[in-house]
Design brief:
Chains A, B: It comes from Novilysobacter erysipheiresistens. The structure is a homodimer. Chain A is built from 24 helices and 15 strands. Chain A is an alpha/beta fold. In chain A, helix 20 packs antiparallel against helix 21. The longest helix of chain A has 22 residues, at 498-519. At the A-B interface, helix 13, helix 18, helix 19, helix 20 and helix 21 of A face helix 13, helix 18, helix 19, helix 20 and helix 21 of B.
Chain lengths: 625, 625
């Protein structure tokens, strides 16, 4: 027994107030689908009416995509020790292609389950694991290819549309045409479109049958750009309770998926707590845990140990596995002259193994065996880029692109098994080389979703790599990347704390949204338009609440104009009350309404008249209310 | 008398310790030019030797561009009340085309000078102002067009090269080819190239003859991308002492120019303190002060008041003026249907004036008169985009592009007078519309330098607009923008404090450097390469010191691994001491050194031998020292 269990008991039963406090100015809504158990969560932001000074009108509430799960739902009861409600359980069961197992299939899992020393840290109340019936394939891709639209697919269609039907026409019409580089952007996402994209392998729905608590989401270039947050402890720092808290915190700030990258102790138990309490898909890198099982000696890893780890994690409910099966023996020497060699942890483990055994890795040699496991639980592949560049100098080199070719070959094998697959990407890449990465990935991987870390566009800003990488992330998202793995300010320096997670997610939500705007996703600009309208009309609270981080915006505003009255002030601290750039426009607008802006001549003539009126009225844009 | 003077006296005499503390791991150097008074400042970062584990070698120090002036020079004596040493004074005097005036030419300036109530806030010890001799033109463009290479131009050539001759060949060879969209990137900047670019109008050297304290710098697409920081008080907040402190702070974090956007009281005196203590060019928006002179009533502005303001500021030494002469009457109604109307303060003042008078502004009508003033002091134009979009919805609209066309016409008029000119740009622009801005600006303004605010790539992140805009800034910098005006996290919410200035500048130094890398500026990648090499070799201090913010990097590292011993640790808190992705590479490298990486077959054969060696040696990458 050590310090962690007791801390956990305290913290696990009650999340700290700051991770579950209500998000200002908004409420949880659920949009029902074709059956009552399809209830798609969204966050609806309520807006104040426009002041009469600006013409006075009601502003329709705006529904936004919501990853925060039950934690921001006042009607939900949160009990971390019981976990979330398994909303997909009946969908999975009714397909009739799975069985409930009598116990865990993995040897390691069983050992942990019966170890009394772990009683205090073990998550207690999980359901028995499920597995596909012998010979069955339970992946969403398999269903999609057989023409079946699952409830998951319908859920996703509703979710992606973000109630576009409720967006005012004014906001919709104000959207600039996008430039999508060949993406197939839809005006309205239908369940059939979701099915078709999954069938083609252009999108994945990571949702293990053992993670029925997950709210379905999709990753693909023809859908909204997603972001992933990494959490996880290491031998040096951080315990279980802290990781669960980070999970909830990450989702609050918009993480679409979360990877648990723990390498420290209680790796199995930490994961169970995370999955049982996560409405977002959870990804892992199973080789990390396999390495722990051989005490860190990479060369002692075996297929048997790795296989048992995959089954252990698949039965816990991990939704996607990063598998570095593309690190081939012949690529390893290509990294020798690099500035930063191999920087992927998984890649370095496999490279070490390959060197020690002088043969291709068990991940590569047993790839079809891995597919068999993936399809029995519907775990998606995230084919890892073990040779990604760790510096600008190493970008787009032979090692990186050699591995990418292999990932393309493996994608085709996975698809043969109807196993959902995405591809991981770099890393550190200067701006002029980013598009080559995206184009090559689309080409060699048959448009399987790309999932990139950044890329970081320069190496010279440790402490600010959320920014160096948000630049690259926005660009590659625009070019067609489906999911962006966040980078926090602590990248290269240390493990992120809660504030770093928030900073990293905000940078990446910005990048993802900027990409959606640039690609021209219908309705994507509605939030920008609503926020800018609020800004122009000095509806301060609405401006804050429509932003990605209402609390931060409000705090910053209050630093210079703290009084409540200033929240409806028709000026701000930048220009002061004396004059304000926004004031003039209302006058122009009033004038245009009277004379019609389409008629330039009439306007020019009317100017003289307006000029004297304007001066006669005291040259004040606003009259006193 | 009010509270500000006494505060000022205290603070002005001694800057706070955090703005002048030495920058870790580096020293000030001066590179001498063709004459001993051309002494170009740089910051040289000293590097530790590589540990013997990684082959042991010395690492050459790296010189980086340095905007921090005398404030980081231990040999300099700082006395804010006396101002900086006027390093360009003799260059200006020896040209023999200027005269020292007996007193200030501006009526307002003289009034302030003799107002005893201002004694306590007035900067005391300035030199008498200079002006061109009657009929003379003292702009750098004028000299350039007559084939004269000024000391300023030579200074700049040395500065831009950043001692490229001292960069090791390994770092230089490791640079990726850039993609410069038609820029004319040089392998080595010569004084003659500087002259030629200034003569063509493709670059400007903002350095008023009344600001001899300035260290010459250049703004143009064929030079390093520059960043500007805005400071300045408003009626609501901030006083003189705080602004001087912000100036020094901004330069410390890399501001290439600083704009004083004060709109509050003591606007004249604040500016004097700033200029006398600034080694970087200072820009202003003279209409702000002119407006103060008419108590904020835009319609009461006159050419006479504005003209006196220009002369007042020109004789103080302002290096560039933002002039919103492109806001024409016919463009104003085009803003009426915008979501956010007119968001530029200067633009809104001029629009109000145009509405009130029903005629074109005095800025437009007196543009050639303004040119006469500019060339008498060598003040550069920064032609303001008064109609820039304030929201994504308003990007690239008829009002914005109409004004840009007019700015192009005005550029040609300014060039007729040999007045240096740059063009201001937006604003809020989604990614897919950024390039159109750059291309159109280059086309209609004859490649005059573009100077953009961001652009912000989405409206939905108040509190994080340094990031929404750094994305757009990096992209437009790559496409050809010459200077990026920073945005701080407080944008739209309040005035930036010192921390916001730091955050904003770091985001923009990243954007500018990412742009330089992408354009392929020779030597630009050397810093990335040196930092990544340090990172790979676990030279922690070197990694921090090569970064844009050594202090922040070091603090972040210490949060999880605080002990000094960890600064040379061959692991970090992300993976812990147990295994580390970087460890494996050295082994691969050793192997490659033995067998030669070019020979794939030999490598494959050698693998078996290596594998057994590797295991026999304990499968440890590093042996104990």
């Amino acid at each position: 027994m050590n310090a962690i269990p007791s801390e956990l008991q305290q913290q696990a039963e009650q999340l700290s107030a700051d991770v579950v406090r209500p998000i200002p100015g908004s409420r949880k809504i659920h949009v029902e689908g074709s059956r009552p158990d399809i209830r798609v969560p969204m966050r609806e932001i309520t807006l104040a009416p426009t002041s009469t000074l600006f013409g006075g009108e009601d502003n329709a509430p705006l529904a936004v995509y919501d990853c925060s799960g039950a934690y921001t739902d006042p009607d939900a009861t949160i009990d971390l020790a019981r976990g979330l409600s398994p909303l997909r359980a009946s969908w999975i069961a009714e397909r009739g292609d799975t069985e409930v197992l009598a116990g865990l299939s993995s040897e390691f899992g069983r050992k942990r389950e019966h170890d009394p020393k772990l009683d205090a840290v073990r998550f207690g109340s999980r359901l028995q694991p499920r597995r596909a019936l012998n010979g069955a394939n339970v992946t969403q891709m398999h269903y999609a290819r057989r023409g079946i639209v699952t409830p998951e697919m319908e859920f996703i269609a509703i979710r992606e549309n973000q109630r576009i039907e409720a967006i005012t026409e004014a906001h919709l019409l104000r959207q600039h045409p996008g430039h999508s580089f060949g993406a197939n952007i839809q005006k309205l996402i239908t369940p059939e479109f979701v099915r078709d994209e999954v069938a083609r392998g252009r999108a994945i729905i990571p949702n293990n049958i053992n993670h029925p608590e997950s709210e379905p989401m999709i990753i693909g270039r023809n859908f909204l750009t997603k972001v992933n947050a990494n959490i996880g402890n290491s031998a040096v720092s951080s315990g279980i309770a802290e990781e669960v808290e980070k999970l909830v915190w990450s989702m609050r700030w918009g993480a679409d998926t979360v990877m648990d990258l723990s390498t420290g102790k209680h790796i199995h138990e930490t994961r169970e707590w995370i999955i049982r309490n996560s409405p977002v898909p959870i990804g892992t890198v199973p080789i990390y845990q396999a390495l722990e099982k051989v005490d860190g000696r990479a060369e002692e890893l075996t297929w048997e140990i790795f296989r048992d780890t995959l089954i252990e994690q698949a039965e816990q409910g991990v939704d996607y596995f990063t598998i570095h099966a593309g690190v081939l023996l012949r690529y390893v020497p290509l990294t020798a002259k690099r500035v930063t060699g191999i920087v992927s942890r998984g890649g370095s483990i496999m490279a070490k193994w390959c060197l020690a055994h002088h043969r291709e890795s068990f991940l590569y040699e047993h790839f079809e065996d891995i597919c068999e496991i993936m399809k029995a639980y519907d775990v998606a592949f995230s084919l890892g880029d073990g040779l990604r560049p760790g510096s600008i100098a190493d970008a787009n080199d032979a090692a990186q692109f050699g591995e990418l070719e292999t990932l393309g070959e493996l994608t085709k094998i996975a698809w043969k098994h109807d196993v959902q697959t995405m591809i991981e990407g770099p890393g550190h890449v200067p701006m002029q080389l980013i598009k080559e990465n995206m184009d090559k990935q689309l080409e060699v991987c048959g448009e399987a979703p790309f999932y990139t870390l950044g890329p970081l566009t320069t190496d010279i800003a440790p402490g600010y790599d959320h920014i160096t990488s948000a630049i690259g992330a926005a660009m590659i998202g625009w070019y067609g990347c489906a999911m962006l793995c966040y980078v926090t300010p602590k990248e290269h320096l240390g493990l992120p704390n809660k504030n770093d997670v928030r900073e990293g997610l905000m940078a990446y939500k910005i990048a993802a949204h900027a990409a959606d705007l640039a690609k021209g996703h219908p309705g994507a600009q509605a939030r920008d338009n609503a926020l800018s309208k609020a800004r122009f009309e000095f509806r301060w609270e609405d401006q804050f609440n429509l932003g990605l981080d209402p609390e931060r915006a409000s705090e910053y505003h209050d630093e210079t104009l703290p009084k409540d009255a200033h929240k409806s002030a028709h000026f701000c601290s930048m220009c002061g009350p004396h004059f304000c750039s926004m004031k003039i426009t209302q006058d122009v607008r009033d004038y245009a309404a009277e004379h019609g802006v389409d008629e330039q001549v009439a306007l020019a003539e009317g100017m003289a008249e307006k000029a004297s009126e304007f001066r006669a009225a005291g040259a004040e844009v606003y009259r006193k209310a």
